[in-house]
């Protein structure tokens, strides 16, 4: 697991609308986690993604961060953040 992987995935999902749609379609934590790791090849922890989110979005409150990493949904920070739903 690595911060580099978390950063790379964050950057990709931020820009890739089709990937955002795919993650939304997958829906469940288990399906998203499997897809991100096994199909896309990204391997990072919840804590690593939290660190990336905070670094990229310093204005995030603790509540914003928990919402972004605690579930699948729309966030005001960089559009769709399905990133951490798999790492709850």
Describe the structure.
By secondary structure, the protein is mainly α. It has one domain. It is 61% helix and 5% strand. It has five helices and two strands. The chain has helices spanning 3-15, 17-26, 29-39, 46-56, 62-70, and strands spanning 73-74, 80-81. It has a two-stranded antiparallel sheet. A hairpin with a 5-residue loop joins strand 1 and strand 2 (80-81). Helix 1 (3-15) crosses helix 4. The two termini are 15 Å apart. The model is unreliable at 71-82 and 84-88 (pLDDT under 50).
Short description:
The chain has 88 residues and is mainly alpha-helical.
Strand content is under 5%
Q: Uncertain regions: pLDDT < 50 for 5+ in a row?
A: 71-82, 84-88
**Biggest pleated sheet:** 2 strands, antiparallel
The helix/strand series, from N terminus to C terminus, equals HHHHHEE
Termini gap = 15 Å
Question: What's the helix count?
Answer: 5
Structural class: mainly alpha
How many separate domains? 1
User: What is the typical, i.e. mean, pLDDT?
Assistant: 74
Output the radius of gyration: 11 Å
The count of β-strands is 2
Key words describing this protein structure:
88 residues, mainly alpha, two-stranded antiparallel sheet, 5 helices, 2 strands, globular, disordered C terminus
Summarize the helices and strands and which ones pair or pack.
Layout: H1 3-15, H2 17-26, H3 29-39, H4 46-56, H5 62-70, E1 73-74, E2 80-81
Antiparallel strand pairs: 1-2
């Amino acid at each position: 697991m690595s911060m580099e992987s978390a950063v790379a995935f964050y950057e990709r999902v931020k820009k890739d609308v089709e990937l955002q749609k795919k993650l939304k379609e997958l829906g469940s934590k288990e399906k998203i986690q499997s897809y991100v790791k096994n199909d896309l090849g990204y391997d990072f922890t919840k804590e690593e993604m939290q660190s990336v989110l905070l670094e990229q979005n310093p204005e995030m409150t603790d509540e914003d961060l928990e919402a972004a990493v605690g579930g699948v949904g729309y966030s005001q920070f960089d559009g769709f953040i399905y990133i951490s739903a798999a790492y709850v």
